[in-house]
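Morning run. Coffee first, then this:
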Amino acid sequence: MINKLQSCHNYLFILLCFFSTSIYANSNNICDEFYENIRVLNNKYELYANPIFEQEEPLFGVTFDQTYDSEKNQWIYKRNDNNNIIIFNTNYYSNSYNKILSKDIILSLNDILVQDLTDEEFDKILSMNDKINFKIKRYVNYNEVELNFDIEKSIFDQVTEVTPIFRINSFKNIDIKNTEYTINYDFEYWWLDNRLIDLLKPSYEKEIGKVSDLIQKKKDELGNEFNEDTFVAGWWCELTLDEFYEKDLFLWHPEIEFINIVKNDLENREVSITFNYNIYGENYEELYLNTRDKGIATFTTKFDLRAFPFDSHELEFVYADTKHSISSQAIDYDGYITLPLDEKLKSKVLEWNIKGNYANYEAIKYYDKYDYIYDGIKTFFIIERNSSYYVYKVIAPIILILIVCWSVFWLRTDQIESRLTVSIVCLLTLIAYNFVIDENIPKLPYLTAMDQIILSSYFFASIPTILSIYYVNLADKNKLHLLNSQKYIRILGPIIYFLAILIIMYSNINKNPSALGTMKIFFG
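And here it is:
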């Protein structure tokens, strides 16, 4: 994973370099000859198949989740609350596959507790041992299970690694009622295919100059500052997706798609494929392809609204290549390209608070209807409802209405008409509030916290009406001693109501993962 991170860092640096004056302009002659070479030499280089890179040394085939430590200015392994390292993914052909899974927590290596190891000590154990006993913890149906696996390093078949870069330019809409959210997105994914260097390099050297001469020229310019990572020169050719297919290149390429997409605005969608040829240091060359997909799309996921309006939700974007199975392609994650959640993005979502500064990533396995397995990534982050709107404009007025409703017990018993007028008007006002709430959430098979608050308010608002009629009846029968109970009801009624509200809040928020974090402090 560390090597991959460095590779992506170089990639971002290359993108910046393409806009500098040190890079030569794109030439149609070079690109046209390049495309022709792909067509003519496709069978010879087996360009219709995915590119494979040889494995240099035996590996366990496990990658670990990482996070960036801004204080140490370095990447570190992501750990849980007990300081144990978390698995990100395993290679399909390695000895770890189907034994160790994504999100497994490593408890020990050869009986050495991981929580007591630094990242450097952890890496040292992995590098110094050809066989390791992994003790891991896994959650199965919300239950913790501890497992042991003896994993041996091996040289295994490689798959093509494809690295996605997902960005959200802006939110168009978050529609909880229809469980949908619409965004303006920018989605890229890139992969190396150095087989294409031989097809581009002759035309490049004919037009621009020999690679060796360009390297020497850069050496003369930089002197001692020149090293193996120095960017020397580059070239790029770009095609729209339609042009790519029209040229009949028959070149292997991934086709990553969003799995949980509902609708894609095809009129505003732009898809392009770029070929990027780069020369570094002492004659190191690479050619990577980049697919860029820009547009507006609507996604969906499951929302748990039991804690509404004190709810939070996970917005997820799941993508996988449903054309190439896990046996030929792996979707890789690189920490350098984590989705940022900046203030500009957050400011456009008024009803919601977006938690954190970066999205989370999770390796997933996608199964199609034929049970074929595809590698994928889930990008997700938490949004929390700005519940103050409902507190001040719904719940507070409801409580005020209940207080007004119970004030009828301060009227004389014989003022039955006044009592009934006040209590019934209050009850009708509560019913009107119910219609306001129904406009914001879907028709659910369960009651939300707000539903329960309103229903309990119905009940307590109806009590003054019923008791007023009852007490008039007692007065007619001269049972005056029972009328004295009204002075206790004046106090006990509101107290019981507030206790009922607290019980409702506790039952819906306690241990509910979709409840607001701030509310869990009081009711968790």
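Residues 449-476 form the longest helix (28 residues). Good start to the day.
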